[in-house]
Amino acid sequence: MTFQNTREFARELDSKDTLNHYQEQFIFPKVNDKRVIYFTGNSLGLQPKRTKAYVDEIMDDWANLAVEGHFYAEKPWWDYQERFAEPLSKIVGALPSEVTVMNTLTVNLHLLMVSFYQPKGKRYKIICEEKAFPSDQYMFQSQVNFHGYRTEDAIVEIKRREGEHNIRLEDVLAKIEEVGDELALVLIGGVNYYTGQVFDIKTITAAGQKAGAKVGWDLAHAAGNIKLELHDWNVDFAAWCSYKYMNSGPGNASGCFVHEKHHNSDLPRFAGWWGHNKERRFKMEPNFDPVHGADGWQISNLPVLSLAPYLASVEMFAEVGMDTLIAKRDHITSYLEFILHEIDKEVESTFEIITPSNPEERASQLSVFLHGEGRALFDYLMKNGVITDWREPNVIRLAPVPLYCSYEDMYDFGQILKKGILGK
């Protein structure tokens, strides 16, 4: 399709968009009494209007049933998490038994590393990406220190080539081969939070396992954003947060994946009563008998008030389907890319999009280096109703989330961006 940088063209695209009506199912902040253009769904998704009813249902059950809500609420609390198995399995490409919800993201990655990072002899090294999200970096450091290793020996970062913004697949594979029989674990972000680069999960997983390592993925920026086939790709484990592309609310519950092949294994784990045999859980038995599947990694009873917004979200995803979501994601991201290039022609500053231009290597994010601009432009955008994200030294991250961003939003953003540069 040949794009045009006009309001009429953007509105025409919106009129043909089968997801356009979903904008009305979200609550937008306002700036100057006008609905914002929201580009930070890669940090915190907007609140779906249906969410409140899900939370209110639990509040009402708590008020009316108190402790009996565990068993007699319309959605009993003691098995509330089981409602996620089917819709989440479709979002991440898993069997229902391979997914669960619990805790928060870094907590779950730590817990999964108890099972899947088992350094022994010379096989103790972890491969991760350079400039991973800081929480992952802190996790790696504390994990290897806990096992008695030095971070500089045990953590191997795959680096970008000089002058390049993204990591090449061949460099990942070469590093895995180089570390070889010293490699215990590969754990990478499925989508790099800074650049928006999407990694080849299938190929990297196969390479890591061929080298004798376990392979896991931090899918914070991937779940609900990219096509995942975790079961078929033979991924050992994964975890993700729910508050970015899945709009479950700030700091909300994390999802976990544990491949079926590990469900009957004797992998070590930190246990708790909610992971115990469901049918015998309330018998208070002294010895741990884990639930079969990913639910067996649960520890404490789950905070259903936190799960309620997440359930509202995954049911919306079930309505839409990932294929439909991804089709719009690719199209609206391409239109945003076009708008940026068009505005670039009209101003003296230079926009360098550091996210890969290949649609196979990107999702719902464009990270833009604003050469010749600084923090003042970001401040201008925010004051004029464009909610975006600033990263030093002068990068803005733009996430045109397909559920609630419109093509007209992309056009309006371009006009505000141009005015902010020309009017300084």
Automatic annotation (TrEMBL):
Catalyzes the cleavage of L-kynurenine (L-Kyn) and L-3-hydroxykynurenine (L-3OHKyn) into anthranilic acid (AA) and 3-hydroxyanthranilic acid (3-OHAA), respectively. This is Kynureninase. It comes from the Bacteria. The modification N6-(pyridoxal phosphate)lysine is found at K244. GO terms for molecular function: kynureninase activity. It catalyses: 3-hydroxy-L-kynurenine + H2O = 3-hydroxyanthranilate + L-alanine + H(+); L-kynurenine + H2O = anthranilate + L-alanine + H(+). Belongs to the kynureninase family. Keywords: Hydrolase, Pyridine nucleotide biosynthesis, Pyridoxal phosphate. It is an enzyme of class 3 (hydrolase). Its EC number is 3.7.1.3. It comes from Flavobacterium chungangensis. Residues 97-246 form the Aminotransferase class V domain.
